[in-house]
User: Which sequence fits this backbone?
């Protein structure tokens, strides 16, 4: 039981997942959203003079956990050999079909796991969103959700999603979807995980502090906006009282927004403090706290040490 979802917008792809896993009557928290490649690995490759492209992918799934892990492992392994976004998508699809073919012969008929996989791929300054329901892979131009909370995700996406959304707005929709699913759908819970794949710019997993700051604002705003809707449609009150009520709710929303800004600033300050403790230069980040890719993929070149020649 879980909630996973992916959103395609004009700037890229956003994926999200909760972390609660229910097995029989037991619950545990496990990461369900995986981002590749490990950016430190890319940085190490660049230092060694190895070629590093902008290929990246994010995966999340609902269903049999071990089988999902196997699918993702093999999908990423084969995707790394791609020379274009089109080829990366084709390689991942072939990998998924191949594993179902292989394991379908190992399991007794009807017992091979059928899982829902959602993934995004980035390469050559473009992104694509895909779903894999069992071995059936389809590209998604808008959004897709799976797991126990899929109907909640689809309901909210139907109200809030639009292809005009920015990456930041898609992150907000993802955070709100997870918040509502964990609040109202049995089997969904734990921490929220969100990954960003930008066509151009910083990509990766969002820090939990950033996600928590957005979610806290959404929780408070969600309650207050309910009261605002009641006031807006209550024609028993005159225009003066309606405007007073609207101004009050706007003031409250501004307070929640400012609290989020302060939480973001605390996250940034903690990053500066950590960099200072480690004796490294501060890394340039975007408003979601993601580090610029050039900082990892193309580290500053250093003069060769004559003693090593």
Assistant:
């Amino acid at each position: 039981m879980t909630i996973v979802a992916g959103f395609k917008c004009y700037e890229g792809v956003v994926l999200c997942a909760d972390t609660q896993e229910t097995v029989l009557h037991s619950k545990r928290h496990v990461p369900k959203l995986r981002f590749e490649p490990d950016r430190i690995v890319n940085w190490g490759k660049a230092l060694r003079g190895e070629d590093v492209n902008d290929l990246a992918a994010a995966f999340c799934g609902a269903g049999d956990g071990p089988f999902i892990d196997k699918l993702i492992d093999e999908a990423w392994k084969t995707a790394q050999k791609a020379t274009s976004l089109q080829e990366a998508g084709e390689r991942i699809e072939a990998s998924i079909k191949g594993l179902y073919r292989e394991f379908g012969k190992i399991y007794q008929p009807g017992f091979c796991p059928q899982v829902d996989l959602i993934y995004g791929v980035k390469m050559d300054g473009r992104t694509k969103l895909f779903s894999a329901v069992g071995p059936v892979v389809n590209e998604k131009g808008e959004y897709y959700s799976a797991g126990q909370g899929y109907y909640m995700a689809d309901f909210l996406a139907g109200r809030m999603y639009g292809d005009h959304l920015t990456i930041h707005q898609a992150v907000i929709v993802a955070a709100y979807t997870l918040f509502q699913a964990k609040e109202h759908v049995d089997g969904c819970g734990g921490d929220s995980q969100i990954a960003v794949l930008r066509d151009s710019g910083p990509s990766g997993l969002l820090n939990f502090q950033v996600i928590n700051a957005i979610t806290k604002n959404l929780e408070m705003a969600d309650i207050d906006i309910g009261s605002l809707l009641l006031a807006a449609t209550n024609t028993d009150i005159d225009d003066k009282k309606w405007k007073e009520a609207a101004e009050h709710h706007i003031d409250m929303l501004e307070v929640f927004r400012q609290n989020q800004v302060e939480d973001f600033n605390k996250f940034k300050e903690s990053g500066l403090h950590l960099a200072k403790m480690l004796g490294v230069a501060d890394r340039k980040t975007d408003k979601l706290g993601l580090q610029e890719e050039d900082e990892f993929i193309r580290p500053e070149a250093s003069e060769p040490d004559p003693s090593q020649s």
Notes: The first strand starts at residue 3 and ends at 9. The first helix runs from residue 39 to 47. Confidence is low (pLDDT under 50) at residues 296-306.
